[in-house]
Design brief:
The chain is an alpha+beta fold and 323 residues long. 33% of the residues lie in helices and 25% in strands. β1 and β2 form a beta hairpin. Bound molecules: L-homoserine.
Amino acid sequence: MAAAPAPGTAAGDLAVPVGRSVRVKVPGTSANLGPGFDTLGLALALYDELTVTVRAQPGVHVEVHGVGEGEVPTDESNLVARSIAHAFKAAGVALPGLELVASNAIPHGRGLGSSGAAIVAGIVAAKGLLEGIAELGPDRLLALATDLEGHPDNVAPALFGGLTIAWMSDTGPSHKKLIVHRGVSPLVFVPDHVMSTALARSLQPQSVPHEDAVFNVSRSALLVAALVQSPELLLAATEDKLHQNYRATAMPETHRLISELRASGFPAVVSGAGPSILVLCSDPAQRLAATQLVADHAETSWQPLMLAVDFLGATVHRVDGTP
Ligand code: HSE
């Protein structure tokens, strides 16, 4: 379904003027949060930033600074560029020549939503570039981002911020955003090694025992209450039987450290598909104790990141004077 042309705009007129430029900021995310596989996600105050400018020459040129510099493609095959192209196609507007300058802080391949952030950066940049030409509303943005990511649990919090519940139906993805209790203090441990989401997903069985499904239904429901209202329930609420154990062989140190953190009372889970660890501490002091535990027990290097919850999600604003 194409996006609606802006009022007073005929389909044949659709073109973005040369010189139009937008700046985008997108948070990292942690998905699953233990029991909420492919459903729950949390936006974290760790950001990728991007400037996109329409240029006269056709084609796409990408400049990357920070994470991914010298590693990610700098042509049309770049994930951000492909996401912009996807949104323009959906809007029925010809893709102009583009200059992209990215400044990235979200680690790649660590379970912190870097691919979701890249996709959301492109989709939201397209929304900004198409201002006054075609409208892309929140549901459409989520649908476009989920097309490319395959599941909505990272792209929903990257788009909307806070804690998101995302679900799929016959009409596509939907989401509900919730505001996290101010006592919740996320702590992430980022290892020096990566994990492939495709590999992690391949380790899961096609079906699970009914009692395990019931177990996760109860913990997911409890987790929403714990994150919004009752952080003291976070340890029980972050239990999971649907994905983490099946993936443990692919990230043994993640699994071991999570077991040790949980045995000491810290609500630790695999962040997304891993290998980072998310600890949903219920007060800032707990973060220091968890950091000490990991420093004492880790065999490889793990970087602790004390991150706030991002409540805003992706932002975009125009940085040019074109009409
Ligand atoms: N829900 C996803 C998974 C998040 O765990 O596979 C990573 O993209």
